Amino acid sequence: MKRPIIIVPDPILRTIATPIEHITPAIQTLAQDMIETMYDAPGIGLAANQVNIAQRIVVMDVHYRDDQATRNPIVMINPHLTWTSEELSEWDEGCLSIPQQYAVVTRPKSVRVAYQDLNGQTQERLVEDLESHCVQHEIDHLNGVLFIDYLSRLKRDMILRKVEKQQREQAVL
Ligand code: NI
Question: Pick from 44, 80, 152, 173: most CB atoms within 10 A?
């Protein structure tokens, strides 16, 4: 079932999510709901904070190109970085919780991420470029951090004001 996506400045987006100890049916359902919500948005990644749940789970599918056949979602429970490259890369990032706003963010070009899958098995992946930015962006969400935090205060405030205005206008319609 699709869940509503939380928009800034909701405090859940600034909440540090708690580790998941047991993969219960509720967690399985949450993962399925997050996948459905991500594809519907559409987006390439989603963290649980964005659907109002402060637990450490993210879903991702960076290769998805608006075509059912290409869907290959990854569920990451308790994801954390075990290595980051010194080499950096820039990417124009956006966020479903900060609609229609984009900005270039600099992050490590490659990272290694460890997590548990829905079967509780530990997995590790080496990712780079877009996928690296996405993994880091989603783990940031679990720590209450947003991509606008990497920008100047001026730029950040401008984006927040734009979103607020846009949300107000949508509410009127
Ligand atoms: Ni985001």
Answer: 44
